[in-house]
Amino acid sequence: MTARIGPGSVRELGPLRWGFARAAGRVTGTEPPAIFTTLGRTKGLFTGWLHFAARLMPFGSLARRESEIVILTVAHARRCTYEEEHHRLLGGRAGLTTDEIEALLGGPGVSSFSPRELALQEAARALVATKDLDDVQWAALRAVTSEREAIELLLLVGHYDMLATTLMTLRVEPDRTRR
Predict the structure, then answer these.
(1) Cα–Cα distance list, 74 to 12, 14, 18, 43, 80 (Å)
(2) β-pair partners for 30
């Protein structure tokens, strides 16, 4: 699979976006992440998107572990390899075990998820599948979240669903580990 729009260079991204992508790659132990070097081509749109995305994760009201559970659930439901690979690392850093990550990506189930974490997963799966929650699903979500957390969960799922569409349509390839 070849990317439909390849990662941009420092000239195409500008020095600030290029520097950000390089720094992100050092943090993740990869080359500059293709998500940033590809979307960075949009310049100001990228900057606005990055601000929005950061308000959901890592600076959202859901715990980092919880947001990674939701993101990995969406990545698997959408079959988005880029999101799955990128968030394996981030999920581990947020406290998910290897077995938990594999369970979220369709592997054998584990019993270590809390009732709240299970409710977040169920809501994320339903939202990707139907773009809605019925009254029973909504009540289950609200039983374990504040009003703000419930709204944020909807935005987080919608954002990563949208991002999966973008990454998959552009054929963005998973990042290679630095050598």
Answers:
(1) 31, 31, 28, 26, 8
(2) 177
pLDDT tens-digit readout, 72-111 = 999 999 999 999 999 999 999 999 999 999 999 999 999 9
Segments of the chain assigned E as strands: none
Query: Quick one: tokens of 151?
Result: 């709204």
What tokens appear for 159 in the block? 């954002």
> What is the mean pLDDT of the segment spanning 27-47?
95
Distance CA(19)–CA(35), nearest Å, equals: 14
Rounded distance, CA 124 to CA 150, Å?
Answer: 11
Cα angle for residues 96, 23, 162 (degrees, 5° grid): 60
Q: By C-alpha distance, which of 177, 173, 174, 165 is closest to 3?
A: 173
Per the omega criterion (within 30 degrees of 0), is the bond before 58 cis? yes
Instruction: Please give the helix or strand (H or E) that residue 158 lies within, else none.
Output: helix 147-170
Rounded Cα distance between 65 and 163, Å, is 20
